[in-house]
Amino acid sequence: MDDTLFYRAGHQITAAIDYVGNLVLFSLEVCRTLLHALRYSRWIIAQEIIAQMYHLGVRSYILVAVVSFAVGMILAMQGLTVLKLFGAANFIATSVAFAFVRVMGPLLAGIMSASRMGAGIAAELGAMRVTKQIDALTVSAIDPMEYLVLPRVLACMLLLPLMAVFSDIIGIMGGMLIGVVREGMTPAYYFTMTIKYLTLLDVLPGFYKTAIFGIIIGTVACFHGYNTTQGTFGVGQSTKIAVVSSILWIIISDVIFTNFIIFLFPR
Fold this sequence. Notes:
- By secondary structure, the chain is mainly alpha-helical.
- 87% of the residues lie in helices and 0% in strands.
- It contains nine helices and no strands.
- The protein is elongated, with a radius of gyration of 22 Å.
């Protein structure tokens, strides 16, 4: 029994190390491909990046808007319960703004994008892998990493900061609805309290974080889609694992970046 338990634990640890190692090697290959494309001025991939940004991003804004607005309302309702105990209900606008700009906006944008964009990328590349389309590109002397993977990773990196700003604005609007309806604040007063204490040191770190989240989503989704096996069953498995892994890596990196930002920019 003990031998079986240790064998399974060792097998899982070995598989995890192997997975992380393969993911790191894939990420390094993406970086090499980027440097190669820049060196030879292959700006034609810019057209593909724009196409991927439209394909992946435009259709994700509704999802981000609905979730951000709902979370903004929830934060405002729960925040009012606590702030009223200290007679500081008028600071609900500041509280929601700080929560979204520093944490919730980037995190919601990352998680929602991983669910929508990551799944789409993994399914698309996985289908291309099992139907031999990626092999056909290789035979035709076209680098799949440059033609398929790199534009998707860069598109995610460029989209996520925009998505986070959009999530911040919509979330603050959700909080404003609660502030106006429950506390009788005017929209102008709520807006004044929102921006009164915010600085660039609050906004910019979240903006930078989401660019990293975008790289994580694009790289992890492309990795699983690119290495899909087992036919159509494997496409479903790759899509599922890509979404779960992307969200897990986003949360882990958010913890690291949050501690790093607090250390560098203490208030």
